[in-house]
Hints:
Blueprint: H1 12-26, E1 44-47, E2 53-56, E3 65-70, H2 76-89, E4 94-99, H3 104-108, H4 110-119, H5 136-143, E5 152-156, E6 162-166, H6 172-184
Parallel strand pairs: 3-4
Antiparallel strand pairs: 1-2, 3-5, 5-6
Amino acid sequence: MFSKAVPQRIPFRTVISLLALGFFIACQSPSARRDPTGEIFPTVSGASLEGEAISLPAALAGEPALLLVGFVQDSQFDLDRWALGLWQSGATIRAIEIPTIRGLVPRMISDRIDRGMRSGIPSEEWGSVVPVYRDAPEIVKFTGNENPLPGRILLLDAAGRVVFFHDRGYSTNALARLLEVAASLP
C-alpha cells in the first residue's frame, strides 16, 4: 500500500533567507551601458560616510566636480587608480566617490555596509564618499551598469551637466582627456 507523506516544515529562517536572496537577485538585473555626456546628472540623495545628508548634483552646484561611481566592490581598484592619477597630475577638481548600491537587502543593511567602508577608508576622506542606496536605480539608468566592474567617471560642469564620461577602466589617455576638459571649464 501507499503511505501518506508527511509534509515537512521549512524553518522560518530558511524562508526569510530565500526571500531575501530572491529580492537581492531580482534587483540586480543589468542596464545597458550608455554615455550621458551633455545630460544633467539626476537628482539623487545619500549620506557621506561622515553622516552628512547630501543631494547631488545640488551639493556641487556652482563648481565643476568629478563623480567616481562604483556599482560593485571590485570597482574600488579602478576608482583608486583614477584618484591616484588625479592626485599625481596635481588636479584640484573636487572629487566625490559614489558607491551605488541598489536593492532592498542592501538598503536594509546600509549601516553595516557603511561601517565596512569606513573601516577601509581614512576618516579624513569620509566626507568625499557618498554611498547611494535608495536612488541607486537613477544612477544605474543614467550610466548603465552592464559590466559593472570599471567605475563610471563623470565630470560635471558648474550646472551639473556631464561634460566628460568614461566607463572602460582607468587609462592615462582617458585621464589626459579628462584633465583637458576640466581645464576648459570656467
